[in-house]
Amino acid sequence: MNLTSPSEIRALLSRHDVKLSKALGQNFIINPGICPKIAESGGASPGVGVLEIGPGIGVLTKELAKTAGKVVSIELDRRLLPVLDETLAELDNVKIIHGDVLKLDLAGIIAEQFPGMDAVVCANLPYYITSPVIMRLLEERLPIKSITVMVQKEAAQRLCAEMPSRQAGAVTAAVAYFSRAAMLFTVSRGSFMPAPKVDSAVIRLDIREKPAVDIEAEALFFRIIKAAFGQRRKTLANCLSSGLAMQKGDIVRALEHAGIQPETRAEQLSMEQFGRLCGEIARFAVCGECEM
Ligand code: SAM
Fold first, then answer.
1. Within 13 A of 131's CA, how many CA atoms are on the CB side?
2. What percent of the chain has pLDDT over 90?
3. Residue 179, beta-bridge partner list
4. Cis omega (within 30 of 0) on the bond before 164?
5. Are 67 and 44 in contact (CB under 8 A)?
6. Does the pLDDT of residue 101 top 50, yes or no?
7. Residue from 9, 76, 198, 200 to probe ligand 1 pocket by mutation (most atoms less than 8 Å from CB)
8. Can you tell me whether residue 290 is helix, strand or coil?
9. Backbone φ, ψ for residue 231 (5° rounding)
10. Which residue blocks in 216-292 are alpha helix, DSSP H?
């Protein structure tokens, strides 16, 4: 069966009485050039176990299974399970798990399904959960080498933005902390069925062995990043004092100790500056009212 042929997809879905769900981000790849490129970029090879999120009707799954040792795909839409049984019937290195990628025990799945293999994540992500999925994969420090995903082009630009830059946001900082991000190629909206309203891009996040900066209080670091980018037009001093519920004077002193002008904006800070700022704010939190 040709899983990139719109007429064959329509026939397949109608045989299984499935109508595509917008809410679940069901835009399936119909450009035959895309899946081989994602599989290659994602490092699918014999010693590698690929965790796929949202196989849909299995078009990318099939391509990954051609070269990967094993593919485990998590699909939330129960209606697609019999479809996948049909489209992937001939493959003995694919396992489908029914569930929500945001709720399943991913560390347990990787340990159980990929013993002795390097694990990577590859997916055409459901766009409505791009950031939560990527943040979960990174923050849980799963034993994975890389994350290669198709996302909306604008999201890709933000995820892979330089720091500092105007495009940077809280998610950029989190991605840069845990990984080295690269924008690989763009994919036009006409490559999907149904066609979404925006273009897409494939990015790869190579997981760092240790984070980009040394941070003692990691939870505080992420609170600072969230607060700093929370109100982009405001200065750091204002964002941080409201976001962290601290006196503005204390924040200004922490900024000055870190060598940062209080009127700077979050998008002007490098990772290293965020790291220094976190150290100063943590010191103040421990020290209370004492002179910094
Ligand atoms: N891989 C297929 C392709 O490239 O044509 C389908 C990709 S489609 C953009 C996203 C898929 O993710 C859909 O099959 C959808 O049902 C599934 N999905 C949506 N939310 C999910 C979730 N929370 N957990 C797992 N899968 C989900």
1. 11
2. 95
3. 207
4. yes
5. yes
6. yes
7. 76
8. coil
9. -130, 90
10. 218-230, 236-243, 248-257, 271-287
For atom 20 of ligand 1, which residue has the closest CA? 24
Q: What is the pLDDT of residue 192?
A: 98
Who's near 183: CB < 8 A, 6+ residues apart? 156, 157, 160, 201, 203
Contact at 8 Å (CB) between 203 and 181?
yes
Using pLDDT thresholds of 50, 70 and 90, give the confidence band for residue 292. very low
Tens of pLDDT, residue by residue over 237-277, are: 999 999 999 999 999 999 999 999 999 999 999 999 999 99
Residue nearest to atom 14 of ligand 1 (CA): 56
**143 alpha carbon to ligand 1 midpoint, in Å?**
22
How long, in residues, is the chain?
292
Residue with tokens 């909206």: 189
- Record the tokens describing residue 260, joined without a space: 């940062």
Query: Tens digit of pLDDT for each residue in 132-169?
Result: 999 999 999 999 999 999 999 999 999 999 999 999 99
- Cα separation, 20 vs 16, in Å, equals 11
Structure tokens at 275: 């790291």
User: What's the one-letter identity of residue 214?
Assistant: D
Atom of ligand 1 nearest to the CA of 52: 1
Measured from the CA of 100, which atom of ligand 1 is nearest?
Answer: 24
At residue 289, does pLDDT exceed 50?
no
CB 65 within 8 A of CB 71: yes
**pLDDT per residue over 187-229, tens digit each?**
999 999 999 999 999 999 999 999 999 999 999 999 999 999 9
Query: Nearest-5° angle of CA 259, CA 260, CA 265?
Result: 170
What pLDDT was estimated at residue 286?
A: 58
**CB of residue 60 inside a 6 A radius of ligand 1:** yes
Q: Is 121:144 a contact under the CB 8 Å cutoff?
A: yes
Average pLDDT, integer, range 75-101: 98
Q: Please state at what angle helix 248-257 crosses helix 236-243, rounded to 10 degrees.
A: 120
